Structure formats: structure tokens, C-alpha cells
Amino acid sequence: TTQTRIATQPIPGQKPGTSGLRKKTRVFMQPGYLENFVQSIWDGIGGIAGKTLVVGGDGRFFNEAAIQTILKMAAASGAARVIVGQNGFLSTPAASNLIRVRGADGGVILSASHNPGGPDEDFGIKYNMSNGGPAPEGVTDAIFAATETIAHYDIQEGPDADLSVIGERPFGVMTLTVVDPVAEYAALMEKLFDFKAIRDLLKSGYQLRFDAMHAITGPYAVEILERRLGAAPGSVVNAVPSPDFGGGHPDPNPVWAKDLMDAMYAPDGPDFGAASDGDGDRNMIVGKGCYVTPSDSLAVLAANAQLAPGYASGLKGVARSMPTSCAVDRVAEARGMPCYATPTGWKFFGNLLDAGMATLCGEESAGTGSDHVREKDGLWAVLLWLNILAVKKQSVAEVMAEHWAEFGRTYYSRHDYEAIETGVANDLMAALRGSLGGLPGQAAGDLVVESAEDFSYTDPVDGSVASRQGVQIRFEGGARVVLRLSGTGTEGATLRVYLERFDPADFGQDPQGALAPVIKAVEALAGIAARTGRSGPDVIT
Ligand code: VG1
Ligand code: CO
């Protein structure tokens, strides 16, 4: 094999967002686009000579082609070893685990998560550190800086690697190790959870349905839920990963996992339902006739995690992203453990987990995880729920009723306005930011503003500061709204409006009804309808 140095020049806009670089697939397929970014990763982290990397992705269109390029570029820059999932498949949490158990120096994960896949849809790439977690902002900034000065990239010429056969072989100057994507992840799950208790629950006639949404968790869920835990064959639906996720949005929420919701609300539906996203790091939990919001799920897991063997000694602390509801804060307070609020995106949890300050983390966007890896983990959340249900011998609805009775209910919803013109979205946020100083004490609809801020976070471990992370407005009486622009989209801007209202006693309301005063207040403060011309959100979760 020969190494070639190819002259190139900076390509504008290669700035990683909430979770790596995400663009339309065709953008990534332009000559040099992926190569420029990959070389900038190598340059941004100080080179990869002699290092070991994990590489894999969610199997979406362009996954394997991108991996072949990355392997050739890793070899050309002198990597010692690259560990790849068979056929290029690795879920995001499994990649995080592999980095950790194999002692790798880092990893490259190919995914656009819950965004659709295909030649006209989305693709993404991100770098994870030796702790298995997404690169922190200092590193993504260095990678972005490298994209702005790049002059050449190095690549090996010659044939592609065979990723279909498990085993170890030379690839250029480096060693290529192709592994079963599921085995080490499944072994980790067996260590954390009481598989016997879950097996007994499933044997008792308990019915489970897991919707893999044609995405990466299919093979993981079949192995763990059906083969190891004895769920009836066929309990995992849409289990074969497809490059375009069967033409759907692999986003586990009531809108995009509607089939599962319909099944769970049918009179003779299953007892427990769950779904995961494109790259396997998100989860949706739904009981018979009982959808659990991600924020409530985090609170329930925080209150009950000690029922699973991996968490039997209790939690050191919990962390949530700032827009996630305060339901988990109430659990932390009652149990006397610290609770941290971080900016949106899993990279901000890494230091807290590494330092042993938090054991459990979560986001309102259906992401929950713990210190077992450094990514959120969809199947892990499903297994922790099943472990808790098996021990408590209660239905999901009973668990929720008991939880609210103890802690009160935090009504919560997120309203997304998608593909707004970027200028309109920026103006809306700028106007709102400009008004914050005068808001406290002011009426908004039928509510009164108590405090208003542009959220800024100082990492308690390394002191790094992330500012302008979203506008947070609290109202007298305990309601709250957060507004921020998405950092994962590939078209225009997406405005996310996060709404919550605490109710200590009345648990049976429809969430949109319970939140009506907050919705009215935010309209008065931000003028979303007037500025965007939209009569309502595109997606309500
Ligand atoms: C969204 C979610 C955020 C999540 C991120 C990555 O970001 O809001 O909570 O961490 O996606 O999720 P944004 O900037 O669009 O709001 V995924 O499953 O990449 O891995
Ligand atoms: Co994801």
C-alpha cells in the first residue's frame, strides 16, 4: 500500500454542534468533505500515530463508505490499531463501551442519531475521547480550528478493508480488529442488571414490545431481550437495521413511534413497550396505556435505581440537562443527593461522571444513562426499567402513580418549530435575550415572571464555561419555560420551547391543558406566532 498526501483547502461550516458534525448526506459525499473533517480530527487531537481507535456507526446510508475512508486515513497517519464493529455497525453506547473496555485512545462514531437516513437525508460524524464520551468543547473547538487552516490530508491507496469477517488482520501499517458489535455490550448489561428477575417476569406471561425502528438497536435487542432474557420471538419489531430506517424517522417519541403507541393503548396491548433511535442512545418507555415522559423516566430511575445490582450501593448524584424537567431535582432533594443542571448535549456530563459526582444523567430528549459508559444508552434504560418493574411487581402505571404521590407531578412538554428561516429564529432569540433584564415582576399572559436568564454553565470539575445555552424563564408559582435553538439540525433553524409546571396534588390532567398558562405566557414574551407565521409547533413531545 502507498500513502498519498492530497492538497486541499478549508471548507466553510465544518463546526461540530450539540453532537458532532451533522449535514445532509450529499454534503458529506462531496469530494474531500469527509476527508477534510477526519484529517482535522487527527490534527485537532494532536495526531493519531501509535494510537488505538474504535470506529463504527448506526448503519445508515454512507456508513460503510465513510468507514473505509476513515480506515485509510487512520492507516496513513500511523494509527496502531482500529477496532471496528462487524459490517461497520456499532450503536453509540456500544462504541463508548468498546473504547473503555479495550483501552482505546478514542473513537469515531458515524451517525445523525434520530434524523432520517438516505442519500437525501442526514449523516454525521463525531469524535469520542478515551473515557468513551463525546469530545468536550475545548476539543471540538480545536477540531473546528483545524478545519479552517487545513492544507492537505493523508490517505492510503488500495483496496477497501473486509469488514464482514470478525478477526484481526493487517491493514496497511496498522492492525484492523473486526469485532462482534453486540457481545461486549451484552456482557456489560448482564453485569448491571438482575437478568434472572427479568427472565422470571417475562416467563410469567408479561408481554414486551421493543421497536428498534429499523435502526441499530435491532441486533442488540434481539440478542439481549429475546435470546438472553427469553422475551417471545418477535417481541423486537423492526429489528433489522436498514440504511434509510425503512423510510422513517428513527426518533423514539409518541409522534414518530406512533405504531408502538397505538399498540400500547389498544385494549389487549402489551404490558411494556419501548423504542430506541437511529444510533441506539435514546429510549422511549410506555406502559399499558401509560406513556412516560423522558423527564419523568429519569426521575423514576433516580428514585429506584438501587433495585438493580449495578446500582445497589446507591447513587453519588444525578445530573440533567437544563431544559429537562425538575422532576429529578425533587427526587435528589428527598434522597439527599446532589443534582446538577448542565447545558444540552451529553458531552457536558462526562466530567461529572468521571469525577464520581453523578451516577445517573438524563435529558428531556429521551436520553438517559449512567456511569457504565459515557453516552446515553437506550437499551440500558429499558433494562433498568424492566429490572425495577420485576422487583416492584407493579405495572408502569402503578409505578408512575406511586412516584407522583410521593414527589408530585411535573407536567412537561416540548414544542418544536422546525425549519424556520435562520434569520427569523436568530432575531426571535436576540429580541428575547435583549428583554431579559426587564422581565422579573412583569406579567406574561396570566403568569408573572420571577426570574429570567441566558443559561451559562461553569463546569465544576475543570472550570470551563459554556455561555448562551438557552433562555430560562421562571414564573411565580413554580412554572418554567426554556427556549433555545437546536444544534443538530441540517436545514434552517429549529426552535425548541420546553414547558413545565409542577402540581403537588392533581395528577390526572392532560399535559397540554395543564401547561396552557405557560404556553400563553411564552407567546406573550417571545411572539413566536407573529415572528414565524406559524400557528403552532410542528412536533409536540
Ligand atoms: C438534541 C437534543 C439533545 C441531544 C442531542 C443529541 O440536540 O435536544 O438533548 O443531546 O440532540 O442527541 P439539539 O441541539 O437538536 O436540541 V442524539 O440521540 O444525537 O444522539
Ligand atoms: Co441518538
From TrEMBL:
GO molecular function terms attached to this record: phosphoglucomutase activity
UniProt-annotated stretches for the region Disordered: 1-21
SUPFAM superfamilies associated with the record: Phosphoglucomutase, C-terminal domain (SSF55957), Phosphoglucomutase, first 3 domains (SSF53738)
Cofactor(s) listed: Mg(2+)
Catalytic activity: alpha-D-glucose 1-phosphate = alpha-D-glucose 6-phosphate
Family to which the UniProt record says this protein belongs: Belongs to the phosphohexose mutase family.
Name this protein carries in UniProt: phosphoglucomutase (alpha-D-glucose-1,6-bisphosphate-dependent)
Species for this entry: Pararhodobacter zhoushanensis
